[in-house]
Amino acid sequence: MNRQTSEPFGYLLVHFIESPHGYGEQIYMDLSCGDDPLCWRSLSHGEPILTSDIGTTGVRDPYITKNPETGTYYIIATDLRVFDGTSTEISDDSWREWSRHGSTNLVVWESSDLVHWRGPHCLDVAVRPAGTRDQLGMA
Question: Where are the beta strands (DSSP E) in 5-132?
Answer without folding.
Answer: 12-15, 28-33, 36-42, 59-66, 73-79, 105-111, 117-124
